[in-house]
């Protein structure tokens, strides 16, 4: 038989996180700090709206772009949080999670050989999606001494005459890093100077702990260069509803919509009705969850301090990214040994790019009781390694 | 600061001062002083344990009693409310707007004990016009906590 597969997809490596947790799943009594999704249930009033829409028989496709009422709510949300607005009919597309929007943006904008700049450590799908869109990924290894923020100088250094897009993944998975206005401004200048576009993945926008998130799209002259991506998964604990959106200049959104309508048709209808409720009446839920994450974040940082583990203070998402270089092991080895010796599962930093070497990702989308137990074990583990050194 | 402290200890009164301070990003001594002050001011009235008695072998009956009373000159409802809440088997007394005046909750060992209290003590009080007793059959949720089901982590392995 002839080879049924495309060379391009074979060249893409499967996610490193997945591999690691398949091993963890085979073991008993593992306490995992590995999951990258909220531990909260979707707030009941949001679920109730979804159920109600089913009862009323709202079981048909929506328009390709999504319910106009939802797009209006999204526009109002962006207006009140970022001070910019979009043409609701032409510039907003409701997608199947933020991840679909990443794929759409890359496929709509890339010609073969165009370079896409991807800062790492970051979410695992930018690089494969870029490759599948025939782009050449150019990786910027972010640095711990910059708190894993992207600097204008780092960006400037990796731009060539083939560069077209910069992916901006902040607040960041896995580091928890954020970009404040003063960090974004010089980066935006470089982007404008070189006539580039930005895919700004702001899925953790609601989860920041030192002031409000600022979108690069809100900076002068940047809205026309930015594909703003967000969604409902992290802010409203709605991961399983698979609902995200993107806001982009009409010229780009029109082409993104073509891919979306041919590949997906429309995002799930039930989820869209629930999302309207989330945006209308969900602010308080978000505030409560944010406060809860923030308490866990402070708890973990204090636990690291007490066990002498080096970690910069992250102000976003629900991850901490402690440094394990003192133990002289690779992130992979450290995570595997921690799993085998103490039955605690964390994700090696290298799953998010080679610049994650020397770090582990710990998710705090877990109850404080679980975090407490895990920190005791991690402390024992660290002391054990130090004593044997 | 008070609101932050209260919102945490309302759900978990056993939390240590140190952990509380860490979680709220506050100074330990400040937190300790604030709690002490709130205890003295009567804002924090006690630290209790939530028990699902149904899971024990101990017999326990809870009743909600609607009580209609005649307000007394110069006293309103206060005097009679006090006479009711002084009984140790009464666990709460609320003044209610609407169809009746006081909502009294009562804990007893048996149906008989509760009904004996209602007929011999409560109804016999001067100024009590009528009572309606509702026995609680099952507590699904109490103090914001679902009693029947333990929370379970339903998240599956994912690549992100």
Looking at this protein, list some descriptive labels.
heterodimer, A: alpha/beta, Aspartate Aminotransferase, domain 1, Aspartate Aminotransferase, domain 2, seven-stranded mixed beta sheet, globular, B: 160 residues, alpha+beta, 2 domains, four-stranded antiparallel beta sheet, two-stranded antiparallel ribbon
What does this structure look like?
The complex is a heterodimer of chains A (389) and B (160). By secondary structure, chain A is α/β, with parallel strands linked by helices. Chain A has two domains: 135 residues, Alpha-Beta Complex (Aspartate Aminotransferase, domain 1); 237 residues, 3-Layer(aba) Sandwich (Aspartate Aminotransferase, domain 2), CATH 3.40.640. Helices cover 44% and strands 13% of the residues of chain A. Chain A contains 14 helices and twelve strands. In chain A, the strands form three sheets. A seven-stranded mixed beta sheet of chain A has the order 2-8-7-6-5-3-4, sandwiched between helices. A three-stranded antiparallel beta sheet of chain A has the order 9-12-11. Chain A has a two-stranded parallel sheet with strand order 1-10. In chain A, strand 3, helix 7 and strand 4 form a beta-alpha-beta unit. In chain A, helix 12 packs parallel to helix 14. The longest helix of chain A is centred in the last third of the chain and has 25 residues. The termini of chain A are far apart. The mean pLDDT of chain A is 96. With 160 residues, chain B is an alpha+beta fold. Chain B has two domains: 39 residues; 87 residues, Lrp/AsnC effector binding domain/regulation of amino acid metabolism (RAM) domain (Alpha-Beta Plaits). Chain B is built from five helices and six strands; from the N terminus they run αααβαββαβββ. In chain B, a hairpin with a 2-residue loop joins strand 5 and strand 6. The two termini of chain B are 36 Å apart. Chains A and B meet through helix 2 and helix 12 of A and helix 2 of B.
């Amino acid at each position: 038989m002839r080879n049924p597969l495309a060379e391009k997809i074979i060249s893409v490596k499967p996610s490193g996180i997945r591999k690691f947790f398949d091993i963890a799943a085979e073991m008993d009594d593992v306490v995992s700090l590995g999951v990258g999704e909220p531990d909260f249930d979707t707030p009941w009033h949001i679920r109730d709206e979804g159920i109600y829409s089913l009862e009323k028989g709202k079981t048909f496709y929506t328009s390709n772009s999504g319910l106009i009422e939802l797009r209006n709510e999204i526009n109002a949300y962006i207006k009140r949080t970022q001070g910019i607005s979009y043409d609701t009919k032409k510039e907003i597309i409701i997608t199947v999670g933020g991840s679909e929007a990443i794929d759409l943006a890359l496929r709509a904008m890339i010609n073969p050989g165009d370079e896409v700049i991807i800062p790492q450590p970051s979410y695992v799908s930018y690089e494969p999606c870029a490759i599948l869109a025939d782009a050449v990924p150019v990786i910027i290894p972010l640095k711990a001494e910059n708190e894993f923020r992207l600097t204008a100088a780092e960006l400037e250094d990796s731009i060539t005459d083939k560069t077209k897009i910069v992916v901006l993944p902040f607040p960041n998975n896995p580091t928890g890093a954020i970009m404040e206005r003063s960090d974004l401004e010089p980066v935006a200048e470089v982007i404008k100077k070189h006539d580039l576009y930005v895919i700004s993945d702001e899925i953790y926008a609601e989860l920041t702990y030192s002031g409000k998130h600022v979108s690069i799209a809100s900076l002068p002259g940047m809205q026309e260069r930015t594909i703003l991506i967000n969604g409902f998964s992290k802010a409203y604990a709605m991961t399983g509803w698979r609902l995200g959106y993107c806001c982009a200049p009409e010229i780009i959104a029109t082409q993104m919509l073509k891919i979306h309508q041919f590949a997906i048709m429309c995002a799930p209808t039930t989820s869209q009705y629930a999302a309207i409720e989330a945006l209308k009446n969900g602010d308080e839920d978000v505030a409560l969850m944010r406060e809860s994450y923030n308490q866990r974040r402070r708890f973990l940082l204090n636990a690291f301090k007490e066990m002498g583990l080096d970690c910069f203070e992250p102000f976003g998402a629900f991850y901490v990214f402690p440094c394990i270089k003192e133990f002289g092991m690779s992130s992979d080895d450290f995570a595997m040994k921690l799993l085998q010796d103490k039955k605690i599962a964390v994700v090696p930093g290298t799953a998010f790019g080679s610049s994650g070497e020397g770090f582990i990702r710990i998710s705090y989308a877990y109850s404080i009781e679980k975090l407490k137990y895990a920190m005791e074990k991690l402390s024992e583990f660290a002391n054990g390694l130090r004593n044997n050194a | 600061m008070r609101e932050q402290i209260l919102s945490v200890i309302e759900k978990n009164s056993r939390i240590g001062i140190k952990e509380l301070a860490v979680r709220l990003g506050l100074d330990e001594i400040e937190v300790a002083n604030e709690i002490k002050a709130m205890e003295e001011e009567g804002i924090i009235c006690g630290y209790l344990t939530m028990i699902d008695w149904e899971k024990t072998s101990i017999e326990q009956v809870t009743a909600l009693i609607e009580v209609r009373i005649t307000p007394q000159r110069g006293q309103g409802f206060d005097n009679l409310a006090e006479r009711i809440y002084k009984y140790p088997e009464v666990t709460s007394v609320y003044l209610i707007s609407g169809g009746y005046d006081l909502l009294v909750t009562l804990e007893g060992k048996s149906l008989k004990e509760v009904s004996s209290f209602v007929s011999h003590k409560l109804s016999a009080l001067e100024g009590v016009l009528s009572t309606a007793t509702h026995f609680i059959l099952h507590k699904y949720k109490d103090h914001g906590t679902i009693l029947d089901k333990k929370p379970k982590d339903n998240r599956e392995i994912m690549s992100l």
